[in-house]
From TrEMBL:
UniProt KW keywords: FAD, Flavoprotein, Oxidoreductase
Cofactor(s) in the UniProt record: FAD
Keyword Flavoprotein: yes
Pfam families tied to this protein: Acyl-CoA_dh_1, Acyl-CoA_dh_M, Acyl-CoA_dh_N
Organism, scientific name: Nocardia callitridis
Acyl-CoA dehydrogenase/oxidase C-terminal domain location: 240-389
Protein name: Acyl-CoA dehydrogenase family protein
Amino acid sequence: MGAIQTSESDTADRQFAADVREWLEDSLSGEFSALRGLGGPGREHEAFDERLAWDRHLAAAGWTCLGWPKQYGGREATVRQQVIFHEEYAKANAPARVSHVGEELLGPTVLAFGTQAQKDRFLPGIRSVGELWCQGYSEPGAGSDLAAITTSAHLDDEGWSINGQKIWTSLAHVADWCFVVARTERGSQRHKGLSYLLVPMKQPGIEVRPIVQLTGTSEFNEVFFDNARTDADLVIGEPGAGWRIAMGTLTFERGISTLGQQIRFARELGDIEAMAQRTGAADDPLIADRIDHAWVGLRVLRAHAIRTMQDTGSGTDEGGQASVAKLLWANWHRGLGELAMAIRGPAGLVAGTDDDLDEWQRMYLFTRADTIYGGSNEVQRNIISERVLGLPREARP
């Protein structure tokens, strides 16, 4: 019986993969054909409106939120089918999604921890890409050390009033909503007294200021809250339980979609190898060794993601797999940017006309941040050593 079930499952998965490939090929051959390969980290400015229309086209065809329950518009796709979709999407060189914060982070968080009223209110807009989200975690004095946040919120007769500042907020300038971790218990410290609030962005109490990056683009922002408002019931979980909810969101962030990310990494590595062959850099044994080492590292990323994938569905991460995954891919990708510059040689130091950067220069500069955003290397190692291995806590002021 087990063999029959496996065979039937494999057949269903092959058909699912064929359906995804066919739909992507048809859809990316028409009005959206020019979007192939556009967008992504450091390139979110590329054809944003057109990629938003693409996301809504995906939603209309039922290709968003695949693993969600059918009652919320999902397909209840298996983990394997979700992996298939993300890999086929990356293989098709389809454009980077603009709605990933809502679909990959906030949506699963609401499903896991939200009330029925919150699910009814927010999940339809995420699935249809009718509302875009951003993440209000980091602050000027609390980047990787999220527990040090000082943004505050207090509850009055009209709801929550929020004051403070967030930074490095991706796509805040286009978002309709932000999920904000704020300190809601006066005098509380570190992980205690935090709450996870859902805050509308289009209001007088919020100011968004773009941050220009080394690449010249500005997908990150500073966000200032000056008596910004949100309703009393727009807190995920109980007030004061924000740390647990925030960690659940980070676990979802490092879930199934990372396998699609690895397909894009493989494409970058393939293009870098082709550049090395074209320029003769591949004849250098040191360069050839670095290329081989990068291919091995990419397979390690995939093996780890597949082995730990079942742990991301509940928003818990008892074994620190999310931190290990972040360390693996961030350091690998930063090394890939360095490899690209080594192959470019002196030409990589010179910008083009009007100081424009080419794709490898932009990639190199952006990958310098890979080991910082989303939790720095140092923080990830502390999480593993203290919470998983049980080693003594690092001394803190």
